[in-house]
Amino acid sequence: MGKKPITILCAIDFSKFSKQLIRYATQLAGRLSADLVVFHSVCFPRSASQDTAASGQVGDGKEGVQRARELIDELMAGQQLPWRSEIRIGEPVVELKALVRELPIDMVLTASYDLSGWKRLLLGTVVEELAQTLSVPMLVVKPPRHSGSDLTGEPLNLATIQVCCDLVSQTEPLFRWAVNLARPFGASLHCVHALEKPIDVGVIDPTDAPYEEVQQTLLDRLHARLVGQLPQDMQTDKTIATAVVPGTAGDKMVAYAREHKVDLLIVGVKQHRGIQKRLIGSTTDTALRRAPCQVLTVPVMELEPENRPK
After folding, report:
1. Strand order through the sheet with 294-301
2. Looking at 108, 141, 174, which one is the last position of a domain?
C-alpha cells in the first residue's frame, strides 16, 4: 500500500494576493504529491478597524458562500491536482482552527498582511493567533512590499531552507518538515543555533582556561550537539550546513537568512507542558515580522532538562 498523501489547506481572502497564494499552494501540492483544500470564511467586520486587506467580502449568507465558491473555481481553473473547497461563515481564525480539528490537515498555507500601506503586520490578530493554537505547521507567505510587483508571476522557490535550532525543544518535527520540503525542491539545508551568552554553563563547566580557548571549546560542543539533533541518516550528510552564530537568536536568525539568501525559515512554536496555548517566543516573533523569506512555524514540545541533548 502506498504512502498516504498529505493534505495542505490554503486559506484565502480574495485580496489581490490570493491568486499568487493559490499559485504557491498548487506548486507546493504538486511537488509534495499532496491533496489541496482551498478555504475561505465569509466574514462580516464588526467595525471599520477590522475591515483589513485580509477581509475580502463577497456577500452575506448563502449568497456569500455561493459567490466564494465561484471565485475559488475561477482561481483554480485548469488545475489538474486533487483539490476541493471548504467555505464557512464566521470569523476566519475561529473557522480555520475548527476545520483543522475536523479534517486530516497536515499543513496550513496563509499570507501575512498589514493594515494599510504595508505599515504593520497583523501579528497578534491573525498570524500569531494561528501559530499559537494550530496543531499543525503553518507556512506564512509574505506578499511583495512594492505595489508595482507582479503578484502572479513569481514561482515558489525553495532552494535554501534554514532550520532554527534552540537545543531545548523537540527538533524532530522541524527536521522532518525540512527534509520533506528540501527533497522535492532540491534545496540545501542550513541548521542554525544562536549563542546568546558568551559562556553557557549548561554546555561547558567553569574553567580557568583562556577566554578564547573556552569559547572555541563551547562552539565545538554546540556544533556537536547540533549535528546530534539531526536524524541519524543526515548526520554524515556533507551537504547539510550547521552553524552556531553569537548573538540574540531572533536577530541572528533573520540576519543569517538574509546573508545566505534563504527561501524558507523553519521555526518551532513551543508547547509547554500544562499550558494549552503555545507560546510565541522572541525568535518566532522576529521571524514572522522581519524574515526576508517565507516562514514555516512548526508546533514542538519543550524538552525536560534531562532530555535535552548533552
Report:
1. 83-89, 35-42, 7-11, 107-111, 138-141, 294-301, 264-271, 160-164, 188-195, 241-246
2. 141
**pTM greater than the 0.85 cutoff:** no
**Does residue 52 come out as left (phi exceeding 0), alpha (psi in the -120 to 50 range) or beta?**
beta
| Full residue range of the structural domain in which residue 204 is found | 160-307
Q: Of 141, 171, 187, at which residue does a domain stop?
A: 141
**DSSP per-residue letters across 160-200:** EEEEE--SSB--HHHHHHHHHHHHHHT-EEEEEEEE-SSS-
Q: How would you write the pLDDT of the chain (310 residues) with one tens digit per residue?
A: 346 689 999 999 998 889 999 999 999 999 999 999 999 999 865 544 444 444 445 555 788 899 999 999 999 999 989 999 999 999 888 999 999 999 999 999 998 764 343 334 444 457 778 888 899 999 999 876 554 444 556 788 899 999 998 766 678 889 889 989 999 999 999 989 887 765 554 555 555 555 566 556 666 676 677 677 676 776 667 678 888 888 888 899 999 999 999 999 999 987 655 444 555 567 888 888 889 999 999 998 765 544 444 4
**297: which 3 cell numbers?**
512555524
User: Cα–Cα distances in Å, from 302 out to 17, 169, 204, 299, 306?
Assistant: 35, 4, 21, 10, 12
